[in-house]
TrEMBL record:
It comes from the Bacteria. GO terms for molecular function: heme binding; iron ion binding; monooxygenase activity; oxidoreductase activity, acting on paired donors, with incorporation or reduction of molecular oxygen. Belongs to the cytochrome P450 family. PANTHER family: CYTOCHROME P450 YJIB-RELATED (PTHR46696:SF1), P450, PUTATIVE (EUROFUNG)-RELATED (PTHR46696). The keyword Electron transport does not apply. It comes from Ktedonosporobacter rubrisoli. Keywords: Heme, Iron, Metal-binding, Monooxygenase, Oxidoreductase. The keyword Heme applies. This is Cytochrome P450. It holds the Pfam family p450.
Length: 385
């Protein structure tokens, strides 16, 4: 996509997309301004069921209401309240406490691959690491994680860039309804869940009535599933792929593992899974010479901003030693990713373990996902010595 971004950016950092009827922000500085500006609202959710019959609309209205209550689609004060509650699970102490367990599980995952000298990077590793983490944070039974992969993929497909025809959306909506029913059942038998995990914190807040309603509780469970799982999986696999394509950078990291934290920043800039976030202008605004009308939809291309040559010299080069590197991969402003430190830790540990274990890796198969909301590989396997 990066060649296309450069081509579009020649028209300016902010362009009008006639086809989609919205503004697209391609420049880094403009993207920062929009994400920082409270005149842009995050309430952009609409699932266009207009082609649907009334009975379908009625059937899925509760589901759509739950999805619209996810915090990244909310403005203050609702957003502030929801974020405050969920943030309790993401304190530096809580995150640090997960380090040993993440390290152990990444090591275990690679043991089997070691015997076979073959690794299905996505299914045997990149999906597994963040899945275990999110299951622990929420405090849901580990054996249920087998359902999470399908639900996360279905949500990703549902919100993809070009909306699917209705007939293809219905099975996805059905699948998300199952996910919601799953969390409903879990909340119902809450006594059996661990006491100090995020789900219990949220349930208690909901029971106290004024701090969280049922839709917000369910929306938050689903958000963590989508926001925390496939994103991190894709960064692990995209990063490994990028390093395999740049053997000198991979060698450098093997020799100097202490460079990993800054390498992760660069890998997040170079090829991150979330390429777009959306906002809506709440009033008429001027932005870098463009006039944005009240109500206009604005797509902020994080992928393009991260490759803006005005901000990042030689943006399409991977340079793990890059200085002054502040990509927008985790967003910016009040919606800045709540799981950023946790995700960085997971990615660092995952890459460190992969670099230790994979000797002379050779890509056997690699296929990119197309059209999904998240940018990443659909198939990726390796053999090694
Ligand atoms: C928000 C990216 C991992 C939880 C966001 C946003 C981005 C992002 C770009 C801002 C959305 C917006 O402005 O509209 C990523 C990437 C990840 C990652 C690239 C992996 C490398 C995680 C993890 C969690 C998480 C591991 C939690 C377990 C959240 C939450 C929000 C969010 C709750 C909403 C914050 C708010 O609206 O205030 N993420 N994320 N993310 N992320 Fe992440």
């Amino acid at each position: 996509p990066y060649a296309l971004y450069h081509c579009l950016r020649e028209k300016g950092p902010i362009i009008w997309d006639k086809q989609l009827n919205c503004w697209t922000i391609l420049g880094y500085r403009a993207a920062m301004s929009v994400l920082h500006d409270s005149h842009f609202s995050a309430q952009v959710f609409h699932d266009d069921l207009s082609e649907a019959t009334q009975s379908l609309q009625d059937q899925y209205a509760p589901l759509l209401s739950i999805l619209s209550h996810m915090m990244f689609l909310q403005d203050p004060p609702h957003h502030t309240r929801l974020r405050g509650l969920v943030a309790r699970a993401f304190t530096p102490r809580n995150i640090e406490a997960m380090r040993t367990q993440i390290r152990q599980s990444t090591q275990q995952l690679l043991e089997k691959a070691h015997v076979e000298k073959h690794l299905d990077v996505l299914h045997d590793f990149a999906f597994q690491v963040p899945m275990k983490v999110i299951v622990d944070i929420l405090g849901v039974p580990h054996e249920d994680s087998k359902f999470f992969l399908k639900w996360a993929h279905d949500l990703d497909a549902l919100v993809q860039e070009v909306p699917l025809p209705l007939a293809e959306r219905i099975p996805l909506l059905q699948s998300i309804s199952e996910c919601i029913d799953y969390f409903r059942r879990l909340i119902h038998r809450r006594q059996k869940l661990p006491q100090d995990n995020l789900l219990q914190i949220l349930i208690r807040a909901e029971e106290q009535g004024d701090r969280l309603n049922k839709d917000e509780l369910l929306g938050t469970c689903i958000l963590l599933l989508v926001a925390g799982f496939l994103t991190t999986s894709h960064v692990i696999s995209n990063s490994l792929y990028a390093l395999l394509e740049h053997p000198s950078q991979m060698r450098l990291l093997r020799q100097h593992p202490d460079l990993l934290p800054q390498a992760v920043t660069e890998l997040l800039r170079y090829d991150s899974p979330i390429h777009e976030v959306a906002r809506r202008a709440t009033c008429d605004l001027h932005l870098q010479g463009q006039q944005i009308g009240a109500g206009a939809q604005v797509i902020i291309s994080l992928g393009a901003a991260n490759h803006d040559p005005e901000q990042f010299p030689h943006p399409d080069h991977l340079d793990v030693l890059r200085a002054e590197n502040r990509p927008l991969s985790f967003g910016h402003g009040i919606h800045y990713c709540l799981g950023a430190s946790l995700a960085r830790m997971e990615i660092e540990i995952a890459l460190e373990t992969l670099l230790q274990h994979l000797h002379n890796p050779v890509i056997e198969e690699a296929e990119w996902e197309s059209g999904r909301a998240l940018h990443g590989l659909r198939k990726f396997s390796l053999s090694f010595d």
